[in-house]
Amino acid sequence: MIDKTIYKYALINAVKHKGKAMEKAVIGAVMSNEPQLRKKAQQVSKKTKNIVENVNKMTPQEQKRELQKLGIKLEEKKETKKKKKLPPLPNIQEKVIMRFAPNPSGPLHIGHARAAILNHEYAKKYNGKLILRMEDTDPRRVDPKAYQMIQEDLKWLGIKWDQLIIQSDRIPTYYKHAKKILEKGGGYICTCKPTEFKKLKDQSKSCPCRNLPTKENLKRWEQMQKMPEGKAVLRIKTDLKHKNPAIRDWVALRIVDEPHPRTGKRYRVYPTMNFAVTIDDHLLGITHVLRGKDHITNTEKQEYLYKHLGWKPPTFIHYGRLHMDNIQLSTSKTREGIQKGTYKGWDDPRLGTIRAIKRRGIQAQAIREAMIEIGAKIADTTLTWKKIYGLNKNILEDMANRYFFVAEPQPFKIKNLPEHLKGTIKRPLHPDHPERGQRKIPFNGRIYIQKDDLKKAKILRLVDAVNVKIKNNSLEYHSMSLEEARKHNAKIIHWVPMDENIPANVIMPNTKIVEGLLEPAAKSLKIDQIVQLERFGFARVDKTNKKTTFYYTHK
Q1: pTM value?
Q2: pLDDT of residue 74 exceeding 80
């Protein structure tokens, strides 16, 4: 009587606290709700410790099922934690127009996701407009496949854009404004050798080209298309005494003798990022430019161009750097690694690309929530995988059906198993969603269990089946009930039948492959489905043929 009562309150406490019952809390609940046992407080206290330990060895799903057997159903408290919202934008005077402007040198990574998500969220917040702009005016840094990959990555992140702009389609527009700058005296065509110009610039002195008449600059501009690479550049006039030499008379257009993947050899003079960005931001009506603080120098450069052209600049907002440990985010290094065979592709699980994250089963909503929580603050911040996994787990817990996967399987035939205990074990696909149906697992005593489960154990509880004892590296029937397993502190383990199972492997984040076997109900799994492999972790189905291949997500 006392044991059953304590067991009930231990289960209730465990379910309320993510699978871990607390001894003092259980004793308190018994004393508070069962006044007849207050006289036996010492006895209750002694028994509670062992009962709590046994309950805590159970999985959360088993704890819930045990409560249901006792006719108790707890109302789960819904999370009342408010989702973080972005702070308001400054200077809202007209329709908000934001832009996300990647360079199509490869697919997006998690660092790009921050800019994309924040710009998208602000556009939605103000019922505004989001422009996707491909900044491809350096032919040497363009991957033709990246245009499509970037759009696929954004769609997966749930980002919808209102307009797609590709800068290489707009070269005539940049030429028009380059000529206008020369006519206004805000720029000049410089034919000085780079080393000579740098010497003068570092001394805050002008080069001979800076004071050429407008007519000569326009003549040189017309000749630039025929000049060899490196012969001439168009510079924007700034302050030659500026404290940052990088801002002094920066390069706006230069000759690049390289065919462009989209336009071929049609153009040879290309705008730099700072020139093209300024022209586009104005002509497209961008109201707010939201980007990393590594662009602060670029912002200052662009402000000179706005002034020369008599344009009002947008509102610039800079956020801090995003740090992530032990992850490759460099597109150029990733490409090099793929070419050398270090990485298997853009979706290699060791990478921080959106494609790699998606393949592992991380949900787009988890990435969005992480980026919104970080926001656009100026201070640098660190994003950990632990944080992403926590957000992702909140999503997957309800979504993922459960299955047994036995890694490094060891075959056993249970000795002395009573015939009447053989049959079919039924387990819910999801403990909280009985409407999804059940998994049927044949049990005849011939099973596979994990090699690790044999360590430091004398008695094992096969989930929903029987208790067995380990004897001379074999398994022998011990008892049937879960209560008996608790008395012996039996380790509760999963298993798969020897006669019906599915070969499977799991590709881990470090690309290590874990071989194993699945329960037969897993034959219905579909590619891209996320499941929870009980006692192993969440995983995404990548292939389903004779062997099922998963990509490991996290615990």
Answers
A1: 0.86
A2: no
Q: Which DSSP string corresponds to 51-68? A: HHHHHHHS-HHHHHHHHH
Cβ distance 529 to 538 under 8 Å? no
d(CA 338, CA 107): 13
* Tokens 């006044």 sit on residue: 35
Q: What is the 3-state secondary structure (H, E, C) of 118-144?
A: HHHHHHHHCCCEEEEEECCCCHHHCCC
| Paired tokens of 51 | 């009962």
Q: Could you tell me what percent of the chain has a pLDDT over 70?
A: 99
**Structure tokens given for 345:** 């592709």
| Other Cβ atoms within 10 Å of 302 Cβ, number | 25
If one counts every other C-beta atom within 10 angstroms of the C-beta of residue 491, the result is 16
Binned at pLDDT 50, 70 and 90, residue 34 comes out as confident
3-state helix, strand, coil in the chain (%, to 5): 40, 25, 35
Q: What is the pLDDT of residue 547?
A: 96
The 10s digit of each residue's pLDDT in 123-157 is: 999 999 999 999 999 999 999 999 999 999 999 99
Q: Which residue has the higher pLDDT, 103 or 54?
A: 103
- Is residue 476 classed exposed, middle or buried when 0-12, 13-18 and 19+ CB atoms within 10 A define those classes? middle
Question: Hey, CA dihedral for 289, 284, 270, 336, is it positive or negative?
Answer: positive
| 396 neighbors 537 (Cβ within 8 angstroms) | no
Contact 268, 241 (CB under 8 A): no
What is the rounded distance in angstroms from the CA atom of residue 468 to the CA atom of residue 415?
9
The answer to whether the beta carbons of residues 157 and 367 sit under 8 Å apart is yes
pLDDT tens for each residue of 233-269: 999 999 999 999 999 999 999 999 999 999 999 999 9
| CA 132 – CA 465 distance, rounded (Å) | 56
What's the confidence (pLDDT) of residue 77? Answer: 54
pLDDT averaged over every residue in the chain? 95
- As given in the structure block, the two tokens for residue 421 are 């205990």
Query: How crowded is residue 95: how many other Cβ atoms within 10 Å of its Cβ?
Result: 11
What are the pLDDT digits (tens) for 477-521? 999 998 899 888 899 999 999 999 999 999 999 999 999 999 999
Cα gap 203→191, rounded to integer Å:
19
Residues across the chain: 555
Q: How far apart are CA 274 and CA 251, in angstroms?
A: 9
CB 361 within 8 A of CB 539: yes
> d(Cα 339, Cα 105) in Å, to the nearest integer?
15
How far apart are alpha carbons 185 and 419 in whole angstroms?
97
- Rounded CA-CA distance 364/164 in Å is 22
How many percent of the chain have pLDDT more than 90? 82
Tell whether the model's pLDDT for residue 313 goes beyond 70: yes
CA distance 533 to 403: 5
